[in-house]
């Protein structure tokens, strides 16, 4: 097949490979669908242990004769995925995270569960087999993720507008190739829309030159809550998993030089203690080299961080159930416009970055995204920075290519790499959110190979058929059950069903214990409830204001101004739940203020934000005074 683009003719010789791959996935998925585990009857009744109990269990492993099998460092998608996999195999495993679950890269994705249409295009155009294999793996894993976490994921149709009749065959062939590579693991089939059909579905689309559009399907997720669900699932299957637990140093046998454990610090109390393990897994994403250099200060750099910025736009910019992809921005990248959590997310950029724990979207990146999206919208739709509700940046952990002299991160393949150092540190680096499960599986496979003294009691355990916590009692009409049983509004019911799954009833029962009537909203424009704050503190290991407003609820990611407005109520509830002193409460507010800067509060600052800050300070003081008077 010959394709003409930009004056170049590229001969594509992958037709036979595509057909062979379709046959492979057809057999693979028919087998996996027949063995899919729909439920574990214990999961619905299970409740997470207290954080104190988990720290006590962790401290128990403070000598060689009480060692763990595996200590996983990093509580992002890959780290918690490793903990789930190891626990299912019957290994003694602990997972520790220096901050909160998904506090880094894993909460700052584009929210897609996808194979990557641009990666497939690169694979075909460049005859790049590694890119092709990445798409294969990701499309297969996409199907698995949607099955094991149906409450946190969904299918999303994405429109690819076509400007110019001659481009229709090219984009039709590309969309169908994407379907074909997925095989039986595919979602709904892609299809063509006429110009009139495209404009009816997406009224704000730019009309001049529009010839039609292709629509293909990918998955979407709430990434931070998916990460939390992985941590909870690991706990359910017997792992120890604790946030705010920092690795101070690695411990080595004085005679052999082999790793035997780590000194940990519970950063909430400042207490340090040793924990011993046969194997240590480094799953810290873009921060992998920090742990590798604890093991060997002279080890060469492995990771090239890449910054990916996103912005949140008003929900009217995009249809409720249809996304959009710009396949070729002015700098040659791909840009998405996607409905998510009652708003619209757009991104991403892809530029080399220094390593930082607090990446921020720059005003240039924000303006770039807004400008590129505006080019696809009707001329009378005027978007500017003032329309942006929030903006953030995350670091991709790309594996460094020594031949990439120009340092361009968009050219680096998103595949993963597993290495084992001379002292026994297993590092899993690179990859992408969608493939976390397979990355975790291969990592635990490697630990079992490298450390034969570990004896899994259930070596055939299969995480591809293991539902995550929240999924066991979930069904498509759960939101209707919540409306009928608890009288919540429809948008609230959808929010709870799709973010908590079968745990939504527990949450609403908690609200019923504290209030007469329906649960109270934190903000009139959003479905987040006051009882979610209490639930996060009691059952989801939320320890800071940031944990609640950014990762248990996603308001900080969706609307910085609205977040400022709910701070007084969230602070009051958490002060009650956590027994914070006035000093601690003030520290928490300062930490949140700094965090919101990374979510765009400074880059987007205007009179509205400034007024919200003043109002927040006044309202917090007023609520504290009333609460103190009531208690006395």
Number of DSSP E strands: 20
How many helical stretches? 20
Q: Please state the average pLDDT score.
A: 88
* Main pleated sheet: 10 strands, mixed
Structural class by sheet pairing and helices:
alpha+beta
Which range does the strand content fall in? Answer: 15-25%
* Low-confidence parts: 1-14, 16-20, 22-36, 402-413, 607-611
Distance between the termini: 80 Å
Helix content class? 40-55%
Overall 3D form: globular
Radius of gyration: 24 Å
Summarize the entry for a quick read.
About 40% of the residues lie in helices and about 20% in strands.
Task: List the topology elements.
Blueprint: E1 2-5, E2 8-11, H1 15-34, H2 51-60, E3 68-73, H3 77-88, E4 93-96, E5 112-113, H4 117-126, H5 129-148, E6 153-163, H6 168-182, E7 191-194, H7 195-201, E8 210-221, H8 223-236, E9 240-242, E10 245-252, E11 259-266, E12 271-282, H9 288-295, E13 303-313, E14 323-326, E15 335-340, E16 343-347, E17 351-352, H10 363-374, E18 390-399, E19 416-420, E20 425-430, H11 436-450, H12 478-486, H13 490-500, H14 504-514, H15 530-539, H16 545-552, H17 555-558, H18 560-578, H19 582-598, H20 607-631
Parallel strand pairs: 3-4, 3-12, 4-9, 6-14, 12-20
Antiparallel strand pairs: 1-2, 5-8, 6-8, 7-8, 10-11, 11-12, 13-16, 13-17, 13-18, 14-15, 15-16, 19-20
Helix pairs in contact: 1-6, 3-8, 3-11, 4-5, 12-13, 14-15, 15-18, 18-20
């Amino acid at each position: 097949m010959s394709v003409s683009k930009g004056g170049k003719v590229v001969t594509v010789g992958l037709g036979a490979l595509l057909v062979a791959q379709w046959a492979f996935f057809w057999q693979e998925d028919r087998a996996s669908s027949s063995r899919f585990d729909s439920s574990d009857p214990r999961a619905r009744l299970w409740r997470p242990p207290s954080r104190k109990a988990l720290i006590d269990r962790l401290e128990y492993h403070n000598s060689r004769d009480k060692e763990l099998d595996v200590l996983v460092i990093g509580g992002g998608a890959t780290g918690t995925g490793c903990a789930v996999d190891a626990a299912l195999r019957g290994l003694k495993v602990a997972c520790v995270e220096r901050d909160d679950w998904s506090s880094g890269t894993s909460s700052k994705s584009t929210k897609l569960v996808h194979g990557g249409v641009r990666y497939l295009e690169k694979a075909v155009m460049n005859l790049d087999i590694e890119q092709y294999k990445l798409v294969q793996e990701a499309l297969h894993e996409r199907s698995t993720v949607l099955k094991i976490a149906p409450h946190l994921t969904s299918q999303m149709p994405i429109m690819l507008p076509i400007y110019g009749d001659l481009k229709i065959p090219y984009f039709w062939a590309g969309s169908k190739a994407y379907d074909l590579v997925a095989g039986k693991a595919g979602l709904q089939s892609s299809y063509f829309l006429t110009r009139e059909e495209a404009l009816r579905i997406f009224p704000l689309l730019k009309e001049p030159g529009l010839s039609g559009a292709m629509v293909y399907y990918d998955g979407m997720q709430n990434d931070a809550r998916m990460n939390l669900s992985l941590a909870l699932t690991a706990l359910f299957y017997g792992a120890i998993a604790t946030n705010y637990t920092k690795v101070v140093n690695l411990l080595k046998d004085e005679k052999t030089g082999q790793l035997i454990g780590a000194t940990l610090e519970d950063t909430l109390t400042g207490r340090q203690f040793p924990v011993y393990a046969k194997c240590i897994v480094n799953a810290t994403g873009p921060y992998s080299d920090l742990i590798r250099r604890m093991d060997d200060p002279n080890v060469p750099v492995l990771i090239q961080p890449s910054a990916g910025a996103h912005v949140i736009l008003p929900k009217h910019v995009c249809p409720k159930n249809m996304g959009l992809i710009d396949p070729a921005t002015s700098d040659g990248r791909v840009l998405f416009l996607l409905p998510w959590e009652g708003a619209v997310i757009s991104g991403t950029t892809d530029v080399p970055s220094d390593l930082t724990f607090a990446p921020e979207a720059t005003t240039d990146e924000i303006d770039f995204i807004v400008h590129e999206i505006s080019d696809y919208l009707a001329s009378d739709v005027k978007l500017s920075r003032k329309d942006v509700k929030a903006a953030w940046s995350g670091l991709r952990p790309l594996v460094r290519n020594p031949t990439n002299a120009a340092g361009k991160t968009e050219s680096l393949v998103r595949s993963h790499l597993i290495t084992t150092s001379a002292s026994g540190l297993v590092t899993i680096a690179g990859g992408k959110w969608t493939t976390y499960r397979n990355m975790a599986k291969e990592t635990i496979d490697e630990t079992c190979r490298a450390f034969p003294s570990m004896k899994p009691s259930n070596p055939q355990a299969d995480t591809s058929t293991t539902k995550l916590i929240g999924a066991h009692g979930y069904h498509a009409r759960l939101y209707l059950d919540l409306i009928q049983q608890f009288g919540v509004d429809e948008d609230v019911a959808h929010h709870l069903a799709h973010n908590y799954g079968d745990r939504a009833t527990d949450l609403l029962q908690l609200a019923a214990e504290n209030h007469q009537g329906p649960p109270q909203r934190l903000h009139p424009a959003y479905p987040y409830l006051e009882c979610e704050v209490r639930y996060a503190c009691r059952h989801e290991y939320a320890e800071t204001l940031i944990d609640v407003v950014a990762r248990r609820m996603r308001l900080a990611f969706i609307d910085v101004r609205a977040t400022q407005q709910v701070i007084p109520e969230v602070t009051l509830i958490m002060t009650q739940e956590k027994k914070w002193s006035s000093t601690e409460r003030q520290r928490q507010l300062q930490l949140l203020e700094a965090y919101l800067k990374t979510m765009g509060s400074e880059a987007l600052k205007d009179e509205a934000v400034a007024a919200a800050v003043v109002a927040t300070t006044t309202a917090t003081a007023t609520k504290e005074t009333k609460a103190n008077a009531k208690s006395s």
